[in-house]
């Protein structure tokens, strides 16, 4: 399980969003991808998932160049931006739709739905997604992301918009999944990052400004005042590299 | 081409359009019933009835086609679900083609109903089967597909669904004025205009309309069948290509 990003540059409307970023993550576990709003986190996720194209540089997933996205993304499932399920579909129809897109067998889809219904405490599967609360819609989307049971997960703020209980459930599941799979997780919640991530990458103004073990970054940049302080020091430019 | 993802997108698109399919089918029946009633009251001849039925079909294809396919090319880029769909390992060409075909399939029911109701009404009123009905139906199918590709193509390069919707509706509703300006006033056959190709749907259902009708302000020119087919097929090829290329390359 490996994600490799090399010298990726991306501009939007003439503005440099990613300035030759490079990083490699591999093995299992959760790697945090942190940065202030507009730093380039979501753009990185979009490039990794073929929602946007890099101007230059190379992105490989499990050794496969994402230019061949149909092969590269076979073992990847992602949550980018704040997607919502189709309002006119029931929860079951939407999950079956995602399973169908990924050519999963009907039996496998049924099995996964039954596991995810339990794990994510999904609402009545025959309910229309349009009538669900924001939190329940987010659960359905996370269920859709977890449905294919891929080895790599790219999650851009998965607990965004969830209440503390719902967020706790998601974190519990991610912790469990992270033992067997590789997860790249973007989040603004430092407690969440500290609790879940083995490593963290910090990006600011389109550049990677720190990458390492969560504990060592906390120690090095937080100077005994925790991960949040380490993060603030890093993005406020008080780091010494 | 992978069959399962293709069928999945096709089925999902049909499911999303189901309420519109029902609404437009009901509207089609009401239109033909109302028009048939007018035909009785107005004492239309068979030719006027057939020609008017053809024009109703022609304009309904524009109206229904615009509504059903306005979202097809753009919704995945303008609505949030697209982030989840387009990040899947599926060929985007397959997604857009399945959606276009689903829109076409969705239009079959109202189209079949309107032809069936019109032919039945014509037979009951005049005791004859309408002239060239099967050929007209064939052209209407091709025109429908081409119109859907046209609206979808516009959608794939638009920011939201209001652009393809308004382009589709404007082209359909103002077509007769384009015919009048180019035909009657300038003496130019509007071969460059998709709805002109679709006019053959009506033109071939009656024996009294000629290629040039000097007395007719709006329908001064009526295309030959071969001409109509060329216009429709060229639009289909161009806008299918635009849809597929723009949908495949577009970034979010």
Description:
Chain A: One of its GO terms (molecular function) is ATP hydrolysis activity. The complex is a heterodimer of chains A (241) and B (252). Chain A contains 9 helices and 10 strands. Chain A has helices spanning 41-48, 69-72, 91-101, 106-119, 134-146, 164-178, 190-196, 214-222, 226-235, and strands at 2-12, 15-26, 29-34, 56-61, 64-65, 76-79, 152-156, 182-186, 199-204, 207-213. Chain A has a 6-stranded mixed β-sheet, with helices on both faces. A 4-stranded antiparallel β-sheet of chain A has the order 2-1-4-5. Chain A starts with a strand and ends in a 6-residue tail after the last helix. In chain A, 46% of the residues are buried. By secondary structure, chain B is mainly α. Chain B has one domain. Helices cover 75% and strands 0% of the residues of chain B. In chain B, 48% of the residues are buried. The model of chain B has no long low-confidence stretch (mean pLDDT 91).
List keywords for this structure.
heterodimer, A: 241 residues, alpha/beta, Rossmann fold, four-stranded antiparallel beta sheet, 9 helices, 38% helix, 27% strand, B: 252 residues, mainly alpha, 11 helices, globular
Write a brief structural summary:
Chain A has 241 residues and is an alpha/beta fold.
Which regions of chain B have little confidence, pLDDT < 50, spanning 5+ residues? none
The run of helices and strands of chain B is HHHHHHHHHHH
Low-confidence stretches of chain A: none
Strand content of chain B: under 5%
Count the domains of chain B: 1
